[in-house]
Specification:
Helix content is about 25%, strand content about 15%. It is α+β, with helices and mostly antiparallel strands and about 120 residues long. It starts with 10 loop residues before the first helix and ends in a 6-residue tail after the last strand.
């Protein structure tokens, strides 16, 4: 997969790919990925993780999710879809059952960046 997307399959990139793509549609940031590597006794610097995520994004393996957060969120599902962002939990979720978006004639959709912000309803 890495070679097919123009990336040299270094040990660090192979590890990151294994962690990122073990399931589809993951929303992840550098700190989460760094922690997952650490739990598997794999040592990656946080800088290596940040650089790797940017490289994966540039290669088309990840999509950056546009949310107002201190963290840069990435999605392993690079197809067109929308997201919910729960600010109080700093969490990103896919919107299920997206309504079809039809572009005007002569255009095609490259990606959709709609983000719906949510706030938890407090019980009375």
């Amino acid at each position: 997969m890495l070679i097919a997307h123009g990336l040299r399959p270094t040990k660090q990139r192979r590890l990151m790919a294994r962690l990122l793509f073990f399931s589809s549609g993951r929303h992840i940031d550098a700190q989460i990925l760094h922690n997952e590597a650490y739990k598997e006794n794999e040592r990656l610097s946080l800088a290596t993780v940040y650089n790797g995520l940017r490289e994966f994004e540039q290669a088309g393996l990840l999509r950056r999710v546009a949310v107002p957060s201190e963290r840069a969120w990435f999605d392993t599902d690079t197809g067109p879809h929308r997201h919910f962002y729960i600010q109080s939990e700093n969490r990103v979720l896919d919107v299920k059952n997206d309504a079809a978006v039809t572009p005007p004639p002569g255009y095609r959709i490259t990606h959709v960046d709609t983000v719906v912000h949510l706030q938890k309803i407090e019980a009375d």
